[in-house]
Specification:
The complex is a heterodimer of chains A (358) and B (226).
Chain A (H helix, E strand, L loop, with lengths): L2 E9 L2 E9 L3 E5 L6 H9 L6 E6 L2 E5 L4 E2 L7 E4 L11 H12 L8 H7 L15 H14 L4 E5 L7 H17 L4 E5 L2 H7 L2 E6 L2 E7 H5 L2 H4 L8 E12 L4 E6 L2 E6 L8 E7 L3 E4 L10 E12 L4 E8 L2 E8 H6 L7 E6 L3 E4 L1
Parallel strand pairs in A: 3-9, 3-10, 7-8, 8-9
Antiparallel strand pairs in A: 1-2, 1-4, 4-5, 5-6, 10-11, 12-13, 12-15, 13-14, 15-21, 16-20, 17-18, 17-20, 18-19
Chain B lengths: L1 H33 L5 H13 L2 H12 L4 H10 L7 H25 L3 H9 L4 H30 L2 H7 L9 H10 L4 H33 L3
Helix pairs in contact in B: 1-5, 1-7, 2-5, 3-8, 5-7, 5-8, 6-7, 7-10, 9-10
The chains are: A alpha+beta (358), B mainly alpha (226).
Chain lengths: 358, 226
């Protein structure tokens, strides 16, 4: 799969001028609200027309303004999951799921109703009406409906944005299963670094209508410009490593990365498997001396490379731990007490690590 | 019995008026809700004109346009053999015109209430514009269409001024329930007949209203979440 996107569009004072490509897997479009993510999705699906641009999918020219090519939205076979579920209120869940399938039958219809319904856990909902579903269930039906239309490309426009944290946690595993089991390439729009770190293979960073960075998730998200720009709750570091050992007695996974090791408790993971971890900046404490008698298992030593003061009285400390740039967010008071400055050696104590199995 | 003739005629005129104006009503409702074209407010004014004009004026205009010597009437008579003046079909036309603004208004409001996002979603799932209309838009505006039909029917059952001006009051041809009641009140001792027809009129109106409420309930249950 190969997707090439180049488009310019002026919407009032906002100007989109973005170019990116995707070679399959999950590509995240990442950026703050108003950075142009949804505009790109609308152009991709054909819901709006770029002033100037080109979209090529594999060898199909979908849009080329110079040559006057514009494939209408219903002929693109790009499935989309919107922020709001947009289920048809006059149809049952089963009819909603079958809606796109019916139109896809002329092209090709996979016999995948059962597997997709199983994958998304929709079996007990089939005869209900959308009005009787919870927010999370609605969004799962919307995902199933898009998948069942046999799309060549699945676009997800912040599918979790309208849900609360509990619902997000409910849906994320389904999205991971979908990524691992379905062979559909996905463009995933999000402003949440944790979602991107968890789901995406590559990331395209957008700012004010322009692509500022693009590349593999771990490389891109750890750039100080990105990791610091995150909100209070979400800033952090993506670390990729390989499972080195599993201690059955303590249910402890040892993960090696660069020349360091991480310990994460959890169910057994096969040795040698590549895993991705997300370490929230607020979960990283700093010490100027090697800490004694602490419960945290993960203590990394490193050198401070940069400090950024935030407006809310916190300081972001970027630490080079043998090649991995770790982000720690501490209060400015602690920063002053410890007299932290660039070049100082510190110990980063990591309270918890979220392990995202890949 | 003369009363039954009037009742049957009224029902037939109202039904024909309602059904014949429905396709145009849906088209006008869609156009006014979604269309962006020059002269939209003119069309809007034209559609609503029968609502604000005195019914007699509407009937007179119909007589001028659709009468035997009128520009449209003479064309219909010469080329298609259709004569509207002083015929029950003419009464149906008068009723349709009088009920049209009510029907269009109801459909227009329901079209405006449709979430365009649902239509976008249908299109991205592979539905062509025609299929989007049939499978999404039409079911969602169905309550508005039904309400519009009922309003048009009710207006036709009660229409008097435009009808009597356009097609007069000919028993068995153009004498509707309303004009029959009017005739009864014009003759001495006609009170009893007028009263009988009044009761029947109330009964028909109540039945139509309850039928519409029930249909709206059935449809509303299906589209409730929108």
């Amino acid at each position: 799969m190969r997707l090439v996107f180049e488009a310019c569009q002026k919407l009032g004072v906002f100007q989109l001028d973005a170019t990116f490509r995707s070679d399959g897997g999950v590509t995240a479009l990442f950026g703050a609200s108003g950075s142009g993510k949804t505009t790109i999705i609308r152009i991709l699906t054909g819901l709006s027309r770029p002033d100037d641009g080109r979209i090529i999918f594999d060898d199909d020219v979908i849009v080329d303004t110079n040559r006057g090519v514009f494939v209408p939205k219903h002929k693109r076979r790009f499935g989309i999951v919107f922020q709001d579920d947009r289920l048809f209120p006059h149809l049952s869940v089963r009819q909603n799921l079958n809606y796109g399938r019916w139109f896809a039958s002329k092209v090709k219809r996979g016999d995948d109703f059962g597997p997709i319904v199983d994958l998304l856990g929709l079996n007990h909902l089939l005869d209900r009406r959308p009005e009787n579903l919870s927010g999370g269930e609605k969004q799962r039906v919307a995902i199933g409906r898009a998948l069942l239309s046999s799309p060549r490309l699945l676009l997800m426009d912040e599918p979790l944005a309208a849900l609360d944290d509990a619902r997000k946690a409910e849906i994320l595993p389904f999205l991971e299963a979908l990524r691992d089991q379905m062979k559909v390439p996905i463009i995933y729009v999000s402003h949440s670094v944790t979602e991107v770190a968890r789901l995406a293979d590559t990331v395209v960073v957008l700012d004010n209508g322009r692509v500022t960075m693009a590349g593999a998730v771990a490389d891109t998200l750890n750039q100080p410009a990105i990791s610091s720009a995150q909100g209070r709750k979400e800033a952090g570091t993506v670390i990729e490593g390989k499972v080195a050992r599993y201690d059955r007695e303590h249910k402890l996974i040892t993960i090696g990365f660069n020349s360091s090791q991480f310990f994460v408790s959890g169910p057994e993971v096969a040795t040698g498997k590549t895993v991705r971890m997300y370490v929230l900046a607020r979960d990283v404490m700093l010490a100027t001396a090697f800490p004694q008698g602490v419960s945290a298992l993960n203590v990394l030593d490193g050198k401070i490379i940069a400090l950024h003061s935030n407006s809310d009285g916190t300081v972001d400390v970027h630490i080079d731990c043998r090649g991995t740039i770790l982000l720690s967010r501490i209060t400015s008071l602690s920063c002053d007490r410890l007299a932290l400055a660039a070049g100082i050696l510190v110990y980063a104590i990591i309270k918890s690590v979220a392990l995202e199995s890949r | 019995m003369e009363e039954w003739t009037a009742i049957r005629l009224s029902l037939r005129i109202a039904t024909v008026a309602m059904i014949a104006s429905l396709p145009l009503g849906i088209a006008a409702g869609l156009l006014l809700a979604r269309g962006r074209f020059w002269g939209k407010s003119l069309l809007n004014g034209l559609v609503h004109l029968p609502l604000i004009l005195p019914p007699v004026v509407t009937g007179f205009l119909l007589l001028i346009l659709f009468g035997r010597r009128g520009p449209i009437g003479s064309f219909l008579a010469d080329h298609l053999g259709i004569v509207l003046s002083f015929k029950w079909t003419g009464a149906a036309l008068a009723c349709a015109v009088m009920g049209f603004p009510l029907m269009v208004r109801s459909i227009r409001l329901s079209v405006e209430a449709v979430d365009r996002g649902l239509e976008e979603a249908a299109a991205t799932l592979g539905a062509s514009p025609a299929w989007v209309f049939i499978t999404v838009t039409l079911p969602l505006i169905l309550p508005g269409i039904i309400a519009g039909m009922i309003l048009s029917f009710a207006k036709a059952m009660g229409e008097f001024g435009a009808t009597i001006t356009f097609v007069s009051n000919i028993p068995g041809e153009t004498q509707t329930l309303s004009s029959a009641i009017h005739s009864f009140t014009q003759v001495p001792g006609g009170d009893a007949g007028a009263f009988r027809l009044t009761i029947i009129s109330v009964f028909i109106s109540m039945t139509a209203l309850m039928a519409s409420e029930y249909m709206a309930y059935l449809v509303g249950r299906k589209v409730a979440a929108s």
